Here is the input.
Amino acid sequence: MRYSGFRVFTQGLRGNTGWTPAWRKPAPKPAYDIVIIGGGGHGLSTAYYLAKNHGLKNIAVLEKGYLGGGNVGRNTTIVRANYFLPGNQEFYSHSLKLWEGLEGELNYNVMHSQRGLINLFHSDGQRDAFARRGNAMLAQGDDAILLDREGVRKHLPYLDFEQTRFPIYGGLYHPRGGTARHDAVAWGYARGADRRGVDLIENCEVTGIDIQNGKVTGVQTTRGPIRAKKVAMVAAGRSGQVAAMAGMRLPIESHILQAFVTEGLKPVIDHVVSFGMGHFYISQSDKGGLVFGGDLDFYASYAARGNLPMVEHVMEAGMTLMPMIGRAKVLRSWGGIMDMSPDGSPIIDKTGVEGLYVNCGWNYGGFKAVPASGYCLAHLIATDQPHPVAARFRLDRFRTGRGLMDEEGTGSQHNLH
Ligand SMILES: Cc1cc2nc3c(=O)[nH]c(=O)nc-3n(C[C@H](O)[C@H](O)[C@H](O)COP(=O)(O)OP(=O)(O)OC[C@H]3O[C@@H](n4cnc5c(N)ncnc54)[C@H](O)[C@@H]3O)c2cc1C
Here is the structure.
């Protein structure tokens, strides 16, 4: 079923009785050409682009819970292309371009809103670092504007500019940055993949990976064994556990990151704002809730919930930057499991097992990467060659030390930022 304004109108007249499910619920087949482990944003977009760009059909996405129940539906929804280092720059630039055409492409309203992102800076040294970053963004063909203090005040008059500890010197403005509705992205890719024949199998946990003579042959699941010529591990925070099923130890630590939402308010924050000294970022959802987050909980864990010390830390940072939010009531908070790589940059690569691929290490930033990650992993699986914009996301950089991309502010060494 194609979605359109006309369809909404006619369905409204008929009491919304004619909508069909957005994707099928097939039983797993005994064998597929390609099995993707993990029905998050990255797994679903990989399946979509395998079918759409490479014409492949016999594909299954195996999800242990429900589609969108992982980090893709738990994040603070920030979408941007303001990375500094070669490797990350071209990849996130490509991703933002895919975002810009995504709703038309998927025929799905993912509520992508390019409301502009402002990263604040609070010292001369930080201004220099942001000026360099802005130049790198412009050189990549993306947009960046260095604002002075008065420039920031025009956009964000509600900030506390006079706070003495971290006075606001200015900000790096990225007008094409913004937000999207996180779970709609998962649903949009799921529907697009399903329409192209991909089987999306929920409540199907992978419990083992079958390997014979150095080649992958299939997976064991809670719904029985499934043979496969190629298998991709796209399990985000659970990547380490899934890779262990193939006898691999990944350079990944799993940490909790929390998010918070207030009661619905009238429009007050019309950008995405991040605090340069307090690890705090905020936007306002279309329903009116202030959506914000901060740093990782300072210990490794597989529990998808956070603890109170980080709650206090995030609230303090928010109150320092914009004391007005102290009057809002926090309604909900939750946690997701981050797959933190040592250099803060991702991995999209083949493994030492023939036919087995890995996609992980998305850290805090994997939501904005969803389109390009699937695009590039699909390219790798279909052609066995890395896509040019993801060519540096190699697994062996952690073994050799060559090609590390230490993107400050995203790595697992949160205490060193
Ligand atoms: C609080 C929070 C805020 C964030 N904010 C942002 C942000 O503002 N911007 C940004 O770009 N990124 C952000 N992120 C990061 C981003 O959400 C993640 O990097 C990204 O969603 C991870 O990829 P995914 O969508 O594929 O993960 P997931 O949705 O977690 O998908 C992985 C899936 O694998 C499944 N799985 C695991 N093990 C198995 C198994 N054995 N068998 C079958 N299935 C399995 C899981 O159930 C899960 O559904 C944030 C994350 C969190 C938690």
Residues 124-140 form the longest helix (17 residues). Confidence is low (pLDDT under 50) at residues 409-417. DSSP finds eleven helices and 18 strands in the chain.
